[in-house]
Amino acid sequence: MTDDDFLAHRFETHRPHLRAVAHRMLGSAAEAEDAVQEAWFRLNRTGAEDIGNLGGWLTTVVGRVCLDMLRTRTSRAEQPLEPDAPVPAADTPDPEQDALLADSVGVALLVVLDTLTPAERLAFVLHDLFAVPFEEVGEIVGRSPAAARQLASRARRRVQGAPAPDADEVRRRRREVADAFLAATREGDFEALVGVLDPDVVARSEAGVTTGALAVAKGATSFASVARIARPALVDGRIGIAVVVDGRVERTLAFTFVRERIAVIDIVTEPARVAESDVRLL
Asked: DSSP letter at 185?
C-alpha cells in the first residue's frame, strides 16, 4: 500500500462522521458531500505526518468549510459578541428540557436553522449534537470559548422556542423506539436496527465514536447476549437502556432522538461514571 493509499484509507474511516457533521450543519446532502470532499483535498495537500489527532483535525476543517459555505449563503450580518460576556446559568437545560429538545431537534432545525447566524449554527451543531468542546468551536469561528458557549446558548434558546410535540406523546414514541431497538438487538435483527436509527446516528463511548446507521447497527448486533439482561430505563432524564447484573447497573445507553429515530447513543461502561448516573428502570 502506497502512502497515498494509506492516507486515503485513514480518511475513509472518518468520512461517515464528517458527512454527519456537515449534513447537520448545512441541511443538504449534496453540500455535505462537497464539504467532506474539500476536507479531503486539504488533507491531501497537507499530509497527515504532523497531525496528532486526525479525526479532530478533519472535524475542524469540515466545520470551517461549512462555516464559509453558510456565510456565502446569506448576507445576514452577525452581531458581535463580547468575548467575556457571561452566560446565564438558566441557559443550561435540565435533563427534562434536554429530552424534549432532543426529540424536537429534527423538526426544529428545519425551521430554525435559517434564522441563526452561521456562527450560531456551527456552535449549536458541533457542541450540542457532536459534543465538540467549546475551545475547539471557538477556534473554528475565531471567538473565545466563552463567546462560543454564548453562540450555542443563543441557538439553543431558539430551538427550544420552536413548536414542540406534546410531552406525553414524545415520551411514548421514544419508549416505543427504545423498545424496538432493544428487541432488535436481542434478536440480532440487523434490518430492524437500521430501521430505528437515524442514517447519521452517532454512538459515543469511552472506546471512541462510531457514526452511520450501518456501522452502529453492526456494532449493536454484537451486543445481543448483553441485551438479554438489559432493561428500558431513564438515564439522566433521557430514554435509554440499562444493563443490570445482580441488581446493579453495569452499563447504560442514553438515546437522543431526531424525527422518531435514534440519532445519538451515549454509552457508559466505566463503573465510576455509571455510578454517577441517575438511572431509573422502566
From this structure: H
